[in-house]
Amino acid sequence: MKNIALVVGATGITGSNLAEKLIEKGWMTYGLARNPNANLKGLIPVAADLLNPEDLAEKLAQISPTHVFFTSWLRNDTEAENIRVNGTMVRNLLNTLSEKRSVQHVALVTGLKHYLGPFEEYAKAGTLPETPVREEHPRLNLENFYYAQEDEIYAASERDGFTWSIHRPHSVVGKAVGNLMNMGTTIAVYASICKETGRPFHFPGSAEQWNGLSDVTDARVLAEQMIWAAITPKAHNEAFNVTNGDIFRWKWLWKQIAEWFGIEPVGFDGVIHSLEKEMATDADLWKKLAAEYNLKESEINRLASAWHTDLDLGRPMEVMTDMSKSRKLGFTVYQDTRDSFFDLFQKLRNENLIP
Q: What is the pTM of this model?
């Protein structure tokens, strides 16, 4: 039977890159979102509300996927609400698909908050794991919507008999507009503003992040791992970290990024320069730049997620991710992190999203 993919969250960084890879590999690919992207050739858009079981049942009535890739989440004011809402979205979807008996595998994307704690307790003393983080690290004794999403999948797998895989990327680098967690594009917007205004291109994070070792995840690498795990029996019913495969220090990479934009870098100077504060009044400035350069997106908040970049770069520890588990099972995709950022910047410029 032909592989039929349902990509949930197909407009985000992870979902859009995954859909593109699946289509390249010949999969019939449906992209589910509240406002799905109809611009990707070969993608069959599905507009549906994951919090509305009746709407899901109607929109998926004629769709029987063999593989489900869940990349979606909604941010709420508290972690308790994150758990309720995001757990419900997974449960509603799998309940809707249950009667079809078509699903063979479900893949879920979470992230390093599995190890570092949820937004409310993120990377705080007393919860910090040893690094590099490894998949066998136990769950923290904290409420975490990632755990709730996992538990929904485990329960549905027991009921319906499909296999599953969990994918835990570090900060994901890739192109998307309107995404809630978008470090690469946030840095690109910040660098563009610094270049246009002459403002200093401050590293926004902590001393530990500036000096320590780190890694990131190219969205294309994450997509490849998700597809690999879906079709590789020995990778079924496992959780996997996923990063580019190299490591770096931000004190090195910040200079590389500054050079790409033709600006001078300013390293850690003893103070955390929060991007949320640095860019707090830049909405009108970005609209002016969008008009001047005829940019496609004039709303800065559709491109930049300064709050989340602050969360990652402000951590009081270095963070690396161990990739041994999937490597031993045969996943060997590698990506140079400089190229992840530079490819993204060039794509953003080519598509007229930054000056």
A: 0.95
